[in-house]
Amino acid sequence: MAVVFEKPKSLTDATLHYCPGCTHGIIHRLVAEAIDELGIQGRTIGVAPVGCSVMAYDYFDVDFVQAPHGRAPAVATGVKRADPENNIVFTYQGDGDLAAIGTAETVHAAARRENITVIFVNNAIYGMTGGQMAPTTLPGQVTQTSPYGRDVETVGYPVKVCELLSQVDGAAYLERVAVNSPANIKKAKKAIKKAFQNQIEGKGFSLIEVVSTCPTNWGMTPVKALEWLEENMLPYYPLGVYKDIYAEEEAK
Q1: Each residue of 5-27: pLDDT tens digit?
Q2: How many domains does the chain have?
Q3: Which of 72, 117, 238, 242 could form a disulfide with 174 if both were Cys (CB 3.0 to 4.6 A apart)?
Q4: Any alpha helices (H) in 134-181, and if so which ranges?
């Protein structure tokens, strides 16, 4: 019988703790497949902050470092600089972590063009702590701390990370992808693999923003959450490449 799928070697056999329908599992698989295909499992070191991804070290069969809330890019910087020729370092962060308490670390790591890979999961809500409004929560979106919908007049507008970092000279590669359909999952895999390949080639700071769902805290079924993402998140967070300095140079 033909084998149509095998679990990536860079994933452990641990059972995921994520809620039913959560797309973290898909993203984990894509990251692990990229690591396997590039042959860098023995060199890879992940950095997990606080959030739903806090237990990522249980799921990836690579070395891992636990970082304080929001500080993953700073920790990743230290790990990479300790052995820049051999260490392949990635962070795996949610929007509450990266775009709130960790905004400064993210921006300045990009500004320094640190040769690291950042996987940024944007599900527009605080997942681990119970569904509070996040920096990426959409205008009008209902959360535990915005029961009448996010009011931009009082709490401001969502942070668009790829658009923000595209103005930082040191950022080398920024792409926003989604995991709500087979076609988008394939594109996400390609982007994640490219971000790791950039690091191998010493091209500098790469960030892949993955637009994702949180059925539990959105109060939806997994299927409905995927539909809501398509209808609401993608218009506000358009998919695509926001910066690729090497592709731009080649096009000149």
Answers
A1: 889 999 999 999 999 999 999 99
A2: 1
A3: 242
A4: 152-155, 161-165
Q: Which domain holds residue 226?
A: 24-251
Q: Identify whether 182 is part of a domain.
A: yes
Global pTM exceeds 0.70 = yes
d(CA 190, CA 192): 6
**4 inside domain:** no
pLDDT at 249 over 80: no
- What pLDDT is stored for residue 24 in this prediction? 95
Q: How far apart are CA 216 and CA 12, in angstroms?
A: 25
C-alpha span between 99 and 139 (Å, rounded): 16
User: Long-range contacts of range 108-112, CB-CB < 8 Å, 24 or more positions apart?
Assistant: 108/73, 109/73, 109/74, 109/76, 109/77, 109/205, 110/165, 110/168, 110/170, 110/171, 110/205, 110/207, 111/168, 111/169, 111/170, 111/171, 112/77, 112/170, 112/205
